[in-house]
Amino acid sequence: MEIIVNGSSENLNKSCSIYDYITNKGLTPEKIVIEHNYNIIPMDKYKTTILNDNDKIEVLNFVGGG
Amino acid sequence: MNDFLEIGNIKLKSRLFTGSGKYSDDSIIPDVLESSGSQVITVALRRVDFNANENVMTHIPKDTVLLPNTSGARNSEEAIRIARLARSAGCGDWIKIEVIPDNRYLMPDGYETVKATEVLANEGFIVLPYINPDLIIGKQLHSAGAAAVMPLGSPIGSNRGFRTEEIVRIMIEEIDLPIIVDAGIGKPSDATKAMEMGAAACLVNTAIAVADNPVLMGRAFGNAVKSGRDGFLAGIGAQNTNASASSPLTGFLDE
Amino acid sequence: MNFYSKILNLQNFDFNTFFKNVTKSQIFKILEKNRIDENDFLALLSPVAEDYLEDMAQKSKILTQNNFGKTISLYTPLYLSNYCKNRCVYCGFNTESKQLRKQLSFDDVYKEASIISSTGLKHILILTGDSREKSSVQYIKKCIEILKEFFDSIAIEIYALETDEYKELNDAGADSLTIYQETYNESLYKDLHLKGPKRDYEYRINAPERGAVAGMHSINIAALLGLDDFRRDAFFTGIHADYLQQKYPAVEIGISMPRIRPVDGGFKPLHNVSDRNLLQFITAFRIFMPRCGITISTRENEKLRDNLLPLGVTKMSAGSTTTVGGHSDSEDESKQFEISDKRSVSDMMSAIKSFGYQPVFKDWEQLNL
Lengths: 66, 255, 369
What we know:
- The complex is a heterotrimer of chains A (66), B (255) and C (369).
- With 66 residues, chain A is mainly beta.
- Chain A has one domain: Ubiquitin-like (UB roll), CATH 3.10.20.
- Chain A has one helix at 18-24, and strands at 2-5, 8-11, 16-17, 32-36, 39-41, 50-51, 56-64.
- In chain A, strands 2-1-7-4-5 form a 5-stranded mixed sheet, with no helix packed on it.
- In chain A, a hairpin with a 2-residue loop joins strand 1 and strand 2 (8-11).
- Chain B is built from 8 helices and 10 strands.
- In chain B, the strands form 3 sheets. Chain B has a 5-stranded parallel sheet. In chain B, strands 6-7-8 form a 3-stranded parallel sheet. Chain B has a two-stranded antiparallel sheet with strand order 1-2.
- In chain B, helix 1 runs parallel beside helix 8 and helix 6 (188-196) packs parallel to helix 8.
- Chain B is globular and about 90 Å long.
- Chain B starts with a strand and ends in a 21-residue tail after the last helix.
- The chains are: A mainly beta (66), B alpha/beta (255), C alpha/beta (369).
- Chain A binds chain B through residues 6-7, 25-28, 31-33, 35, 40-43, 58-66, and chain B through 19-23, 26, 42-48, 50, 53-58, 66, 68-69, 71, 84-86, 88-91, 156-157, 183, 203, 205-206.
- Strand 7 of chain A pairs antiparallel with strand 4 of chain B, so a sheet runs across the interface.
């Protein structure tokens, strides 16, 4: 299946939770913000939100800024 | 003396806000916060770089007030979206609205800023909008529910100093909100000048981040802001700028 | 919040103690500021500040020139009617006075307007007494419609109206509202306004704001100097102007500084207001509100008006009469008060020019699109 992550498409073998997806990428859930199909997903919903074919997600974090 | 800057129920002792951008190494940030006394730091929200795994948050002490900005937003809808995302990170309700449709001079869009402020203030955000110095926009932001107004001192990152002082002075006099001079402040004396005039605070990023010694420059700005504030509170003495009388205008009263 | 609620908080303000604590160095410092607040304004009205009157006048002159140039706007009053239900003890039109009562017919209005407009004047101030029966809003509206043919700006100085009534007259062509509080001292106000609708202090004090809400382009307020201690009423007039200007930044706010003149019935001023006092008020107010208009009418004599001209004044009346129909008929005994500066419009123009100032007949016209 295919999902769009931060504007680029990415192939996944099977559906998985947001939690599984980001920990596989080596990210710490506490330090990021997720938008799933334009909805903000609170951290306690990462494990129960499942990524399906054609979903769009934004994975964001804080960086230096003025 | 109990001189606090109160914004959104938080009482701040320091009137210097710092930024977290443009440091050659983010790990110096805690030392800069320490030397400057700054209690508020701005951050930006970006798409994660899956290859770098860098996160500025690891360098920001827990008790610092986080002021996420909406940089990257070109209109109110984008600013609102970024603000909501930033809040979902669980780091508080403060948001610096920054709507910049101009990539050449990085000038903010006042109209879109007012629209975003109204929506976000209604959602309970503590909104600090960044604008071109403009009295009418400032008043509209007040009505829209802003917690402070942040006019620019000169263009972002220009380090050209406090060039907008005549207009900012009017904003300080007329707008019943803290006026925080943001952007363009290049030297500690620029910050002092703004504070002497009655600005509530200064936001300084580039001038500290790109100094040869950011920790020392942080201390210099911390002191500069304090000096300016003390000068303002103490009541600047009279400077004789008026032309002295050429011929008496009131002589007729004694005729 | 309206201005009445603001002034309620100040009713018990201790002016004497405040004035006693004003120091010379404080005045000196205030005069060096770019912008002064209410406290500074009151300090400039203090007896201590009288020693700095020359410095105040210098500053006031510069501020006035910077904001208005070397110009004086001219207007003249046109009395439509002197029927009145009020008993204001200082006024020649008061209901007890034996004056002949008159109201201009629409033909009379036309006649007066032709005569006034032949002098070149473009701004006019129309006045009535307080009688809704005799001088109804509809009557005044009709007069405005006639006057519109002759004048570019019409100001009304009539009994206090409701917001929608102000709007009706504004739509008809009255762009300015003049309404005097007479005194801001509420208990004194009750003592001086014994009878009639005007006795309602709160309704009167909020009238300028109703005019602003109704869309008036300019609002002119005043206290009648000589009723209460001038320092007190001068201060309240100033903060009333400031209140209106803050809340209605698009409206042109101005103040007048009328001193009590002799009237039929012989009311004596309760407080003396000297020329020095008047100048202190003008200059303190100019420093407090550099962009507000200041009107000095023909109540003041020729010589004083000439001397005050560059020191803060922006507007003057000329060729005035306070008699109903006085522009076409010769003046009779039914005056509201005695005119002091009796110069004609052309004499006023020459005088203004001789001081290096420009007399302005028209500086505004409302376009009803």
